[in-house]
Amino acid sequence: MPTIHFVLKDGNTRSVDAPIGQSVMEAAILNNVRGIDAECGGCASCATCHVYVDPAYFERLPEPDDMERELLEGVAAERRPTSRLSCQIALVAELDGLVIHVPATQA
Amino acid sequence: MSPLSSTPPTLAIVGASYAGVQLAASARDAGFDGRILMFGDEPHLPYQRPPLSKGLLTGKTTVAALALKSADFYREARIEHVPDMRVSHIDPAAHRLTLADGSTLAWDWLALATGARCRALPMPGAGLQGVHALRSLDDALALDEAAHKGKRVCVIGGGFIGLEVAAALAGRGLEVTVVELGSRLLSRAVTPEISRFVASLHAAHCVRVLCNSAVQAIHGHAGKVSAVELESGECLGCDLVVAGIGVVPNDELARAAGIVCANGIVTDALGRTSAPGVLAIGDCAATPNPHAAEPDTPLRLESIQVANDLARAAASLIAGQPQACIAVPWFWSDQYDAKLQMAGLMSPTDDVVVRGDPASGRFSVFCLRDGCIAAVQTVSRPADHMLGRKLVAARTAIAADTLADPDFDPRTLIPR
Ligand SMILES: Cc1cc2nc3c(=O)[nH]c(=O)nc-3n(C[C@H](O)[C@H](O)[C@H](O)COP(=O)(O)OP(=O)(O)OC[C@H]3O[C@@H](n4cnc5c(N)ncnc54)[C@H](O)[C@@H]3O)c2cc1C
Ligand code: FES
After folding, report:
1. Which of B186, B160, B188 lies closest to B348, judged by CA?
2. Residue A74 lies in a domain
3. What is the pLDDT of residues A44-85, one digit of tens each?
4. Does the reported pTM lie above 0.90?
5. Where is the 2Fe-2S ferredoxin-type domain (chain A) (predicted)?
């Protein structure tokens, strides 16, 4: 199971193991990682599962599709080059050690 | 805080779903330090409903992924979730409630987050085996199982849930007919432009859509559904019927306690009902909405956004820093590969500007009221949706012909 390290708003890190195929958003919700709201439950409709992906891992992710790219225009916190919607990142073996930064706000 | 408040105060929540969970979570976040009890009459941990008609029926989502929050979340936030427990009576004057097992509980704040239930089909045959409705996880699992065996399905009602079910089941290879009483699909919620697109989308996926059609009766054979008879006399053979004719609010507890109800438990923008200390939030509540064409009339909206935002407002009241709910209503629906997103509340008398070509499957409909953007409804244009929420919140003024110009960029309307 890949491990994901969530860097929280308060600077603390929460590390969780999550099965391949699960989305980073689901891993956060199911492991009680605060700061990822996911109001639409992963339907790619709300942009409240916004995260910053650590640059070392960002390049390894498949490109966002058009829907995600457009939704990212509406994130509540600052949009950065490493912004992604965590419900659209599916875990694969190569993402073991993934570092995710939780943004300041989702609303 | 109410005069009866003991230390520590108790917040009792009836209903363990979006509204109840958000209230509990936000009250804690805002510093409410008393006891929080959340009673739900379902056996599950609170779970997500939108995927029931979307991902779950199409196989894209699993039951395990539906949890709204993890069990740890409730433990950490000291939210006592009591599953499988119905609240059977509330007494606002005595600040008590009674549970189905006969025990009683004193509360300082009571929040009714009881949601809504499917409207029952009024015609003969509604009780036949093979007639389904969709509100709960158990409903979805039953429908999923029936769909494995079914071949021909008749969906009664061309609203969001009926159409999402139609799309999901058509995608699974079932032969689907949608029967709608009104002259167009989704007539309450979207503009005719979007209705037309949705009708063509379903037609392109070989779903038969019959508008202006009333169901007269459901016929069966050996207790199982076999056909749906329309008022026109036409009989649609089917082995599965899905009713999507809307919901009714679960307002019985409030009614019995003498709390003012009008198609839902009437509240203000902080979730306050007519009974002191009693709040109502989510699908069961009817609340004046500043973005509606009639902003002073209590309006019951069924959406995650309303459940969350009114719950946040109610939590702010409980925590002693009241902040009324003024959020822009938004909603979405996924059908096949199309993503419908609605920001604001349209009214049939709004002026309408279409941007983009509906034939391309990606376009936006802007609704103008009194010269201002009152609603934005998009098909597979999430950027316009996100922008639309801001434009509606700011009641942005714009001339229809400016907005209609394809070279005009509506993003320039947001002050930088
Ligand atoms: C299939 C489906 C798809 C949907 N899709 C979308 C969508 O795409 N976008 C969107 O925004 N919204 C969608 N919705 C609507 C959304 O799910 C509701 O708006 C939301 O669930 C409302 O939350 P709530 O907490 O007010 O009520 P509910 O979710 O209805 O929960 C109320 C809970 O209270 C319980 N309860 C009732 N009375 C009692 C009692 N006396 N004692 C104890 N418990 C009680 C009920 O059993 C229920 O569990 C969808 C709904 C369904 C059914
Ligand atoms: S959970 Fe809503 S966009 Fe990711």
Report:
1. B188
2. yes
3. 999 999 999 999 999 999 999 999 999 999 899 999 999 999
4. yes
5. 2-106
